[in-house]
Amino acid sequence: AQSVTQLDSQVPVFEEAPVELRCNYSSSVSVYLFWYVQYPNQGLQLLLKYLSGSTLVKGINGFEAEFNKSQTSFHLRKPSVHISDTAEYFCAVSDGDDKIIFGKGTRLHILP
Amino acid sequence: AAGVIQSPRHLIKEKRETATLKCYPIPRHDTVYWYQQGPGQDPQFLISFYEKMQSDKGSIPDRFSAQQFSDYHSELNMSSLELGDSALYFCASSLGVGQGGGNTIYFGEGSWLTVV
To answer: What residue in B sits closest to A38 (Cα-Cα)?
Structure first.
């Protein structure tokens, strides 16, 4: 069975500072990994995904994530955050043939 | 580009009433998923359909049922509503299940159900 653990429920960071949101996964088969963002009172938007190939994945809004198989991690990073990045971020996993399983989410607070 | 369309966007029902949510997948997508997101919670998988047949089942209460129609749209029917059913219900769609292709799942904006 697949599962995702997001290590931080909340992450405060100053505007224009870098940020890393941590995600670890467990799966007995090949995985596909995703990061979704949910802005306040809105739906889920796909930020980026890892299916295969290069382990560094670039997404929208300046975000990127690195797939690390040995550490079973897929951490999300952004070099400089903006107030508009305030949102809930969900890491998710799929075996490619089935549904997506979400982590508990990390709330990103941008401090002025 | 066309996205996943959900209706209604907001719905208020009383306890013990029935509610129906509709989902129209992205054109040519043949797989539909339903998720429930309670307040402050992560989205929980309820059920999915592939080519009009149920393909997987998650934590869907017995009071809920769903189906996928010939045009691939799906409906989630919820009966004997309880206060705890108040949540954001997401529909998502993808192209193909069982093809091992890492098909990306696209989510709709969600339907807000409030049970009072």
So the answer is: B109
